[in-house]
Write a structure and sequence with these properties.
The protein has 282 residues and is α/β, with parallel strands linked by helices. It folds into two domains: 2-173, Rossmann fold, CATH 3.40.50; 186-281, Pantoate-beta-alanine ligase, C-terminal domain (Pantoate--beta-alanine Ligase, Chain: A,domain 2). The protein has helices at 7-19, 35-47, 65-69, 75-84, 95-98, 117-120, 124-139, 151-163, 193-212, 219-231, and strands at 2-4, 24-29, 50-55, 89-91, 143-147, 169-173, 236-245, 250-251, 261-269, 272-281. The radius of gyration is 19 Å and the shape is globular. It binds pantoate.
Amino acid sequence: MLSVNELTSLEEELSKASKKGLKIGLVPTMGALHDGHMELIKQAHLHSDYVIVSIFINPLQFNQAEDFINYPSNLLKDSNKLKNAGVDLLFNPDAKLIYPKEPAVKIDFGVISHKLEGAFRLGHFEGVGLVVMKLFNLIKPNVAFFGLKDLQQFILIKHIIKEFSYPIKLQGVITVREKNGLALSSRNAHLSPSGIKIAAQIYKGLIWAKNNFETFKSTDELKVQLNDFYKKQEGLSIEYCEVLNLNKFKPLKSLKNGKKTALCIAAYVEGVRLIDNIFLRE
Ligand code: PAF
């Protein structure tokens, strides 16, 4: 595996790959790689010929300095995992390369970027959108792979690709879970064994909602009952739970409209912020 952290070598490698007619697959990450990332890489191998993984902890998408500082990082361990997974190139730029100066241009990514994660983490999606566009511009992948655990991010990127006319195929990759249902996340590393047990209740609630959603009169009723379910779990504090139309990521009132629907949730356990979701209707 080649590891590059500057543009000249990146461009050289990209040009070699494109001369060979290889289909380039990009897996953007912030490192602290777990089996969820490995699934993205597995899909990238299946759907492209030359797999690039980027590792960049993007300061612009953290709304709290402390969260950025505490974000887990272990480049050596990550790099070994990527080598074993047969990745062709690791792009590991530093912040100066991505943001040589404070960005003079700010892009507002619209209504999707302002709700849920965007409302609770102000500026988050401006940072995500900007860095993803930069990675798309630098790497020009044919296919890009993003996890569906970050469903709002995935839907926003789908719109960015369409509206900014990127010739990139977007591939969503299923959420990988622990045996107890907890969605894999780099943040799980901050949880104690008992915190992990509590956090596993998040998915239990989502499954319960999916199994029962036909019986609710409205999304409000579903949310009230789901919150009651979670209130019984000591140590779990729900930040939001929302039922949304999958295409436009618009909150839904009625469950009877036949639209593709997802239930998204954010919660805190031991001060760690966790997100998850489930498709109620696909
Ligand atoms: O999902 C992530 O890990 C990040 O938001 C991403 C897409 C790599 C952008 O920094």
